[in-house]
Design brief:
Blueprint (H helix, E strand, L loop, with lengths): L1 E2 L2 E2 L5 H16 L7 H7 L8 H12 L12 H8 L3 H13 L2 H10 L8 H9 L3 H19 L23 H6 L2 H14 L1 H25 L1
Antiparallel strand pairs: 1-2
């Protein structure tokens, strides 16, 4: 579907495209499908020339669930359907959603909370649609986005501002202690990304320097 300068898939991730990606992955694993008729029948179509089948492939490609050329499940498609880690599946879903440029614009601006009144006004600003055309697709676009993002869970973050390392920058260690080794590894990885390791190391080095600087004066006294 064309929305101004953007295109949005006519099919949603859940449940249709998720289930189709899962079927493709289960059947072909990491191999590229060579017979498009087999693919079409696997996904519930009689012919690989049907418009519905071709539109479905276009939607799977738009979300990044299969490769741009050929029919092969992508890494994000594999993670979305079969990753044993719930957080990794959630990250895969987010990546899939953000593969749609208009959804990426919406997500960066509003997250899951689209404006409740005169959404069409925002559509004119973002997509370049004229007001009458934006009004016509207002509810269609809103519903499509919300249907895609409804299963996306908020990412767990550090409490407050980590860079300050004060009380508001404390990390909830109880969560780390009570979770699985995989979860703890993810927490450490996220801390590393945020630069917490470097901050902590610099702080420890500072304390050591201060301590070493005081010891000589105490001995002299």
């Amino acid at each position: 579907m064309k929305v101004g300068k953007y295109d949005i898939p006519e099919m949603r991730i859940y449940p249709l495209l998720f289930e189709d990606t899962k079927k493709l992955y289960e059947h072909f694993k990491s191999e590229e499908a060579k017979d498009t008729l087999t693919v079409a029948q696997l996904l519930g179509h009689k012919s690989d020339k049907s418009g519905a089948f071709l539109r479905k492939l276009a939607c799977l490609r738009a979300y990044g669930l299969i490769e741009k050329r050929g029919i092969k499940v992508t890494d994000v498609g594999k993670r979305l359907t079969y990753d044993p880690n719930e957080e990794e599946r959630n990250r895969a879903l987010k990546e899939t959603i953000l593969n749609i440029p208009l959804w990426k614009e919406f997500h960066s601006k509003w997250g899951a909370n689209l404006p409740t009144s005169k959404f069409w006004v925002e559509l004119t600003k973002i997509t370049g649609l004229e007001a009458p055309d934006a009004q016509k697709v207002d509810e269609i676009v809103r519903k499509a986005y919300l249907d895609d993002i409804r299963y996306l869970k908020p990412e767990k973050k550090l409490k407050g501002d980590v860079s300050g390392m004060g009380e508001e920058g404390e990390f909830d260690t109880s969560t780390a202690i009570s979770t699985s080794p995989d979860r703890q590894a993810n927490i450490v990885a996220n801390l590393m990304k945020e630069g917490a390791y470097d901050i902590a190391k610099n702080f420890i080095d500072f304390i050591k320097t201060k301590k070493e600087g005081k010891e000589p004066s105490e001995e002299e006294g």
